[in-house]
Amino acid sequence: MDDYRISGKKLKDLMEVLSREADLYAPVKKNDVALFKRIDSVSDINLDYRNTDVPSKNIVFPQTETIFSYTLDKDQKIEPPPVYRESIVFGIRPCDAHAMSILDSVFRDDFKDPYFLDKRKKLTLIGLSCDLPGASCFCTSLSGGPGNKTHLDMLFTRTGDDFFVEVVTEKGKAVIEKAKDLFKKATDKLKKQKDGNIKKAEALIKRNIAVDGIKQKLDKLFDSELWKELSQKCMGCSICTYLCPTCHCFDIQDEKTLEKGRRVRVWDSCAFPEYTLHASGHNPRPARMNRLRNRVYHKYSYYPDNFDMIACVGCGRCIEKCPVNIDLLDVLKKVKEAVK
Amino acid sequence: MDARTMKDIYLPEPATLLEVKPFTEMETYYRIKLDSGRPLGHKPGQFAEISLAGIGEAPISISSSPVKTDHFEMVIRNVGNLTRALRTLKDGDRVGIRGPFGTSFPVNDVMKGKDLLYICGGMGLVPMRSVIQYTLDHRDDYGEITICYGTKSPSERLFTDELENWGKRKDIAFLETVDRGDDSWKGNVGVITKLMPGISIDPHKTVALVCGPPIMYKFVLLELRKMEMSNENIYMSLERHMKCGVGKCGHCQINGLYACQDGPVFKYSEIADVKEAI
User: Fold this and answer.
1) Which pTM was predicted?
2) For domain B3-101, is the CATH number 3.40.50.720?
3) For residue A84, which residues of chain B lie inside 8 Å, CB to CB?
4) Class of domain B115-237
5) CB–CB contact B250 A270 (8 Å)
6) What is the pLDDT of residue B6?
7) A92 touches chain B (CB under 8 A)
8) Is B131 left (phi over 0), alpha (psi -120 to 50) or beta?
9) Where are the CATH 2.40.30.10 domain residues in chain B?
10) Where does CATH 3.40.50.80 sit in chain B?
11) Chain A partners of B122 at a C-beta cutoff of 8 Å?
12) What pLDDT band is residue B1 in, cutting at 50, 70 and 90?
């Protein structure tokens, strides 16, 4: 599809147009934390981030989501969830878009999850290439990259004062249609400039791992002492799972006042002991060692078994945010060394 | 198609408690009917989610045979917020039901024509009763039927009228034991595996069905191995902390398997090598 150019000065106008037509999600900063929010005023948008601290999964899989609400009178009238509006996310990094495709597999498999799939279907992903990948980024090891557009509807890349705009899907084309006069056809010169910027960004990614064969090695390592060693310093805080763009575990809970209530699903984490605790008191994953191991296996062994893909995009958040510096890449490197 | 038109897998159906009866100090029996009048349509060994608005939802085994279509039964132990609230309900009160979910015991293929050896520990009788009842309802379709049931104490025995009936029947062998007896108990004392050496089976024409507390499985499996049962002919229902029941929320995951979807009933040969399963 065609390539376009939009002036940096016109970006705000584009955001105005998009937020009129749909729910617009874009990065904002709150208490110095970069995250995606639904935008009420385009002046709130803040593009000064390497990657958002909180992944964009909350747009389709909110941390707390009402499944349905009900009255607590005799009738117990059930109110289904709202009809979701068309939404656009601007500024999603290619790795987070990749993660959305990974989440699709779970929510689409067998039973269809109506809440996730409806929002996902109505969502247009406008990516923003990375110009400054973080020190923990390793997306290039997982078939991604700072300018990878595979899982996006369109991709913006900063080129000086302008943005180079690539349209990937029909949904992306529709965005151009909505604001035709803001976009100009891109020149070959600008494309070269863009390619150069992406190359520069790629060169900033210093960390990497060859992921081929890790699954086979993990299959031989389940009972290894390695997991005990690695989990020694884990505090079980679960930040690695909460900030992981592919983690999708949730709990279902009821909340109520005197007159009404709602059933919500809330993010949960396999790093918590209560997560697997039976009502009887028995716990099949009793120690932190079991839980840390489960997280690594789920990403690099179980998910490949079930969906033929690794459930990791190399965004590096779990490495960056771990309070005790447990480093997934180091863990994987130890796995590779442990099995010859 | 939006969330309102897509089949909502999380939305419970209203149901009414036809009968609520305390069984023991901890367990309560419920006879339940969906308000729509549709039969639940479960297979023996499956579970359903039961919920109370404002309290919560939990997965519970269905304890009755699918042969009865006008209602279904559950027996629920009082161990948490929801189950405590359920304990206070009366006949005619209403609950929410989702399901049935999960795999079932192969009553119509593998088990047909075979001798059946049931091993039920404690609450394990609750899901197993749906299969036992089904095979007794279709008695001619199966060979010898042996039921072993063990509880911690005589006061924890469930479905006592039915147990007495099973004990009297000539077409089944019913063996019982308790971990600790009391003055009134005249039967066997000891864990369930103590019953097993006395049972004579033909391992080539027997299917063993196992359900009980997590600790029970490995010891029962040792006894079944002594009886020369092959892993192919052992079926077991595994307990896990489940939440959504539809393979999304992750709670019941056992390696790459989901107990709510790939289980709760597993053929042992399929999980013998799965770490953390038993």
Assistant:
1) 0.94
2) no
3) 2-3
4) alpha beta
5) yes
6) 60
7) no
8) alpha
9) 3-101
10) 115-237
11) none
12) very low
